[in-house]
Known about the structure:
Elements: H1 3-35, H2 38-44, H3 50-70, H4 82-89, H5 92-102
Helix pairs in contact: 1-3, 1-4, 1-5
Amino acid sequence: MTAEQRLVKAEQILATTQGTLLRAITLHEMWARCADKRDILGTMDGSREAFGFGVVRNAIHRDLVITLLTTLERGQDRSACIPALLDIAEDNSVVKLMKARSSRPIGGR
Length: 109
């Protein structure tokens, strides 16, 4: 794979990872709101919806953990994870290409 191809792959991984991390942030905010906030827990305690609330809260937490793990776990060659991105960034030919691109005027390729 050429440096250009590896850089394109890195850009794709970065875009996918950004989306995954935004999803993780969203899941965390939803889970944090229902994990220990007294107003919600007090309302749910003893209600008919309490069982379902617990199931949904645990599902959100599980999805958060799985989402975070996907950014770190190596999978197949096409995996979009941070370690794959770092592997590409360690390639000297990719670094040279990135430096060459960053030194060009805006709009130039």
